Amino acid sequence: MDPFTISTGVLACISISLKVLVGLKQLKANVGGESIGSASIDVLSADISGLRKVLQSMEDAFQDTNDEQAVRETGHRGAHWRSLRRCLNDGHWVLSDFDEMLFDLSKKVKVLDPSRMKSRLQSAAARFVLLGQQLQAYKDAFRVSLEVIAL
Q1: Residue ranges per domain, the chain?
Q2: How do residues 85-133 score in pLDDT, each as one tens digit?
Q3: Radius of gyration of the chain (CA)
Q4: CA-CA distances (angstroms) from residue 1 to 6, 16, 84, 136?
Q5: In the 8-state DSSP scheme, what is residue 17?
Q6: Can you list the alpha helix ranges (DSSP code H) found in the chain?
Q7: Which listed residue, of 95, 121, 145, 149, carries a Cα 20 to 30 Å from 112's Cα?
Q8: Could you tell me the pTM of the whole model?
Q9: Any idea of the CA torsion for 106, 133, 37, 25, to the nearest 10 degrees?
Q10: How far is CA 18 from the centre of its chain?
């Protein structure tokens, strides 16, 4: 595993998180500004923005580090890099899954479109809570990893 591989994973997560943020903004605009689900959309947007900031900090840290030997080490350092890579893959998968859910929630129909969209948003509220918890866990894991990288 080399820094390039991890940097690629970080950039992929940043990219999909931006796509999800745009999807959340569009969903909020489609259901109306003060609807039932708009508060949860705002919370998720803030969580994803926080995650993007941590990921961007990681990317900046990797640009400052060119120590390929440190990434290829075994033991605790090697385990840290492997865990970070798995966490990045899992985070990307969760964000991709959420992007697909946003696509399903934003489907347009000809009859009663705003009402149907609000209904779909209400039915997805539990998934929004779960996603928020997962994003917080990833953000915390990445923040700890960033601190370890700094050491």
Answers
A1: 3-150
A2: 888 888 889 899 888 888 877 776 666 666 777 777 777 777 888 888 8
A3: 18
A4: 8, 22, 11, 26
A5: H
A6: 3-31, 38-64, 68-72, 75-105, 113-123, 125-150
A7: 95
A8: 0.75
A9: -50
A10: 8
